[in-house]
Specification:
The protein has helices spanning about 15-25, 40-65. By secondary structure, the protein is mainly alpha-helical.
């Protein structure tokens, strides 16, 4: 039986990450539904996740350079 190891280090950030996911999906042209998105292609899911990571890294780099 598979177990979910995706535990959030900061559970309070769940809502902000969810909002961020929808913003990034909109930017890359992927439409997400409220709730289950299991029919999303791996390519589209990767584009969303990859761009989320890219933006988070940019934000940290910008904050470190100030």
């Amino acid at each position: 039986m598979a177990t979910n190891s995706n535990k959030k280090l900061v559970p309070e950030a769940t809502d902000a990450l969810e909002k961020f996911k929808y913003e990034v999906a909109s930017e890359v042209g992927v439409t997400l539904k409220d709730g289950y998105n299991g029919d999303l292609s791996s390519k589209d899911a990767g584009r969303i996740g990859g761009n989320m990571v890219k933006k988070m890294i940019q934000q940290v780099e910008n904050s470190m350079s100030k």
